[in-house]
Amino acid sequence: MKKFTIHRTTAALLALVLLMAAVLRLLHLSGFSFSNDELSALYRVQFDCFSDLVSKGFSVDGHPGGVQVFLYYWVKLFGMSEFAIRLPFAVAGILSAFMTYKVGRRWFGDASGICAALFVAILEFPLLYSQVARPYITGLLFVLMTTWFWTRLVFDDESMNKRSVWIHAAWLTLSMTLCMYNHYFSFLMAAMIGLTGLFFIRRRNMVPYLVSGAAAILLFLPHLPITLNHLRIGGVGLWLGKPSWDFIFRHIFYIFNESWFLLILVAAVVGWTLWKRRRTLAFDRFRLLTLLWFLLPMIVGFVYSRAVNPVLQHSVLIFSFPFLILFLFSWAVPLSDRMGPVLFAVLCVAGLFSLLTEKKYYHSQHFGEFRDIALHVSEWDKTYGETNIGRAINVNNPWYIDFYLKKMGSRASFLQYENKGGLDLLDLKHVVEQCRSPYFVYAWTKPTLPETEDIVRTYYPYIVKKYDYADLSAIGLYSKDPPAKPFPEPEPLLVVRNGFETAGRWQADLLRQDTVSCYSGYAAYRFDSAVEYGPAFDTLFGQISDEPVRLIKVSLWAMAPSGLKKTPIVISVDDAKGKNYFWASRDIENFLDEYTWGKVHFTCKLPDAPSAADRLKIYIWNTKRSEFVTDEMEIRFYD
């Protein structure tokens, strides 16, 4: 009777976990825009033949082709709506929670399986990647499948006849192959699991086991030339930085919703269960495997990223993260203990609180915005007239924004689609300068220099509307004339100006005054081969404002002949002991046409608010000892 009750409790809790996994994943599934990566994938399935899909769809992408091939056929059947595209990945997320339970139950018991499945169901990390059509949650499912069939073949063979052994070997082959075609880090996990089995497999099952691994390798061979091409093109290493030495700690913190509350609670629950079971504690092979399989992919990725090519980021470690959860709950109090269901309830409530209240998951911007930006463009065209608005955007591919514009029936186009900085800034200046419409829209959907908005506002100084999506995307409507209702803007803490008519606190050399070529007033400041550093604004942060300074905006007017290169405005911060800890610059030539006065901008966000005793220096560094003239330099400080 007691055994029946425990079984019924386990079934009820598992049903609850899977119900939560389903609700959390299906809720709001189509409520947010496709991400940049999803739109990239959808753009690369629009081919008429499979060979084009291979050569243009994923050979150039840096990921194995499995998910791309799936999407190629899925789109043909169900279209490109957010719900239709993401539904298979949400289902994979639900199944991942179930497979976590299966593995946890087999390795450590019902309670461990239930608790681990609960965290796979409600943590933000697996939930987020269950709601985007990318090869992360699918890889997690395939890794867990591989783990399950590997366990059955390596450790449960005594309960199977020869036919069943070969069936499980076939399932293991399929699971490992899916891992290999899904993502290179899920490939790595499959390889680690397969090699680990060589230390445990019994001799009588060695042949089926080796055959399963060999078959998986053979099935991947058609993809090998593509993989070699991926290694050649570099992938995310072209933009992803090297991981810092504290990456493992930051990753664990990330896994637990970046919540000290949740992390401490889990640590307390695990500590209590260890104390309660102190007399029967054991560190068996499965606990060793969970630690190894969680840590090894991170170590391999870390070493490769530091030594060869940066590839390590949180998303690629989703395939190994359940093993940390399984390890932590491997000593979970049995459900037969009255505290078992109580601890489950505590963990469940705490996890949901962290997800919904702390993280505000369904009210947060997780990726760059495209749909809402297209919506505003369409609405503003209807309100102000399509021909009355000039437009520019920074987007990885014009199709990404056109996808949503066409859905909304908009014919809007943009005068500039990409701005990587450098001379793209000058191109944007030409676009805005030559635009004759009374309004201008500027938007960005990927990391963009803040000076782009400053350029727009040189010619369209007034903000009519502006929307910021958690610093992941933004769009603004700007006008030449003041709007009826001014858009609220932050007031600067301090504004400092220098027209170079006097030396003042800048310690400018009056012999460098140019009274012939000046933008305004009666003098400008001339640089030539004798001047390396211009007049510097040099002060302590405590003398700027009592409030912390977090943002500095520098602007000036300059005129130079052709050939000006590597001539930056510099912002430098030293600590109280004179040691520099922050240095940033922006080259002025990227804002200037030759022999023409142009406005230069440098907007700099400080990583942390400096202390009052820290020293700030702002100056022009004439690295090439070039000849040019500057005037009307202005510095604005913001909290």
Low-confidence stretches: none
- Inertia-based shape: elongated
How many domains make up the coordinates?
Answer: 3
Using only C-alpha atoms, the radius of gyration works out to 30 Å
Distance between the termini: 66 Å
**Overall strand count:** 14
The mean pLDDT is 94
Query: Helical region count?
Result: 21
Helical percentage: 40-55%
Quickly give the structural class: alpha+beta
What portion of the residues fall into strands of 2 or more residues? 5-15%
Q: What about the largest sheet? A: 6 strands, antiparallel
| Oligomeric state as shown | single chain
Structural summary, described in words:
It is a single chain. This protein is of the alpha+beta class. A hairpin with a 5-residue loop joins strand 10 and strand 11 (580-587). It folds into 3 domains: 2-363, no CATH class; 371-479, 3-Layer(aba) Sandwich (D-Maltodextrin-Binding Protein, domain 2), CATH 3.40.190; 494-638, Jelly Rolls (Sandwich), CATH 2.60.120.260. The chain has helices at 2-26, 36-43, 50-58, 66-78, 82-108, 110-122, 124-128, 137-155, 162-182, 184-197, 206-220, 224-233, 247-255, 260-276, 285-307, 321-328, 339-358, 371-384, 398-407, 423-434, 451-459, and strands at residues 389-394, 439-444, 462-468, 474-479, 494-498, 513-514, 524-527, 537-540, 551-559, 568-574, 580-587, 598-605, 615-620, 628-638. The strands form 3 sheets. Strands 5, 6, 7, 9, 12 and 14 form a 6-stranded antiparallel beta sheet that branches. The protein has a 4-stranded mixed beta sheet with strand order 1-2-4-3, with helices on both faces. A 4-stranded antiparallel beta sheet has the order 8-13-10-11, with no helix packed on it.
